Amino acid sequence: MPRRRLGVALLIPGAAGVAVDTLRAAVGADDVDRLPSHLTLVPPINVREDELDDAIDRLRDGAAHARPIRLVLGPPSTFLPTNPVLFLAVNGDVAAVDALRNRVFRPPLERPLTWPFQPHVTLLDGGSDDRIRAAVDALAGWTVEVTIDRVHLLQEHKRDDGERLWRPVTEIVFGAPAVVGRGGLELELSVGGTLGRQEAAFRDRAFDEHQLARFGAPWKPEPLSVTARRDRRIVGTADGDVRSTGEAYLARLIVAPDVRGEGVGAQLVAAFGSVAAERGATFLSLNTEDGGPSLPFYERLGFERWYSLPEWRAGRDFVQLRKFL
Hints:
The protein is α+β, with helices and mostly antiparallel strands. 27% of the residues lie in helices and 39% in strands.
């Protein structure tokens, strides 16, 4: 039976997460882009594919009994001399963290532990003793406050370059689901961010059935991405999808700041459009800020205004662009 390598964590949200990531990079951590800042509840564990739904149910049960947890992270400390780890101490409502951990640390998410559970946020794992002790001294007053209102199930993936990274596969917001329609046809409403595995499977199946009944075939955009590298370093990406309507949608184009102005973006768009045409697309589309710095770039590449998107994001006007292939 196939297995997934999973973990359960409280991800550090918002500005606090950015601050912790910055601190991790400053002390020499090399996994900032592969592992989000977090407080581990269940360390890596291999879970059978047929037990994945049970694992998600464990998280759902734990989250239903939890409320937003207010914590103070820091100052930095260390497990030396036992273990060369630099971490942020966790203070505040630690009892709530312990209670949540006890609810989710059950089969199939229960495993033997090398060290007793101690809430902490790792900054650097495996650094030299001198580096770790110097960081503890230099950052003695560093703290950040955070409120955590959801729990995440993470899964390990292997990147193209062989590095392993962890990404959320399910997030569950704290609090019991709302029940509406009591006394009649009751509904339980659960609020979250990204849909979980079971919910996404329902969405995809039901949407395909609707599309098949309404239009005679499911609508399945085909993902498309292009990556630019220089000396094995990634310097830009373009990604989106090709649709059965003849449209290829460019969702994101990003180029490393130090190579902008060198034609990397134009090459990415050209490659994206070329492959999209090979897959049957007749035009490219994208949206960008109306009057923003990217608009002249796309206009130079032959994109034209298609329609306006007033106050589309953060109160700013955007515009949908189109270019025929």
